[in-house]
Structure formats: C-alpha cells, structure tokens
Amino acid sequence: MQPRRPFVKVPLRGFSFLAGFSGEVQNMSEPKAQYTCMDYRQEMVLLGMKRRLEQETLDEAERKAIQEQVRALEAAMDMD
After folding, report:
1. Measured CA distances, 37 to 8, 41, 42, 66 (Å)
2. For 62-76, what is each residue's pLDDT tens digit?
3. What ranges in the chain are assigned the alpha helix state H?
4. Ramachandran category for residue 78: left, alpha or beta (phi over 0 → left; psi -120 to 50 → alpha)
5. Which of 1, 25, 50, 64 could make an SS bond with 10 (beta carbons 3.0 to 4.6 A apart)?
6. What 3-state class would DSSP assign to 74?
7. 1 to 4, 8, 30, 34, 67: CA distances (angstroms)
8. Terminus-to-terminus CA distance in the chain, angstroms?
9. Which phi and psi angles does 53 have, rounded to 5°?
10. In 3-state terms, what secondary structure has residue 45?
11. How far apart are CA 54 and CA 72, in angstroms?
12. pLDDT band at residue 2 under the 50/70/90 scheme
C-alpha cells in the first residue's frame, strides 16, 4: 500500500469567473468530513417519507406508520 500524499495546493490562473473560489484545490483523497453514501441514502429516504406525508390520499394508519418511521430515522441520524 502506498502512503497517502499530503495536502496539495494547486494554483489555478485564469478562472476569474469562479466568484469566491480561492484558486486552490485540495487533494480529494483526504476528505474533510466523514459523509458516507449511507448518510446520503438516509437523507433521501427521510426526504421521501416526508414528501409522502404531504400527500392527502394517505389513510390515518399509513400516516401514523410513516410518522413513526420518520421519528426513528431522525433519531438514528441524531436529528431529534
């Protein structure tokens, strides 16, 4: 296994159309935060359930079941 390369700064010239861009690119093999595919998936599942709750065609039992699932998922994601 090869050792990881350290943070690399690469100057980018001629990209003035990128307003607010510092002109430096970080080595993408070293992420700043731990945001995984599972995190994204959970967010999308939560969004889908919340959208489903907005539908007027849901019966009360299904609405309660989805609300319970939303609460459980938010708790698992530390959003409660």
Report:
1. 25, 6, 9, 23
2. 999 999 999 999 998
3. 37-53, 60-76
4. left
5. 25
6. helix
7. 9, 20, 16, 22, 47
8. 41
9. -65, -25
10. helix
11. 18
12. low
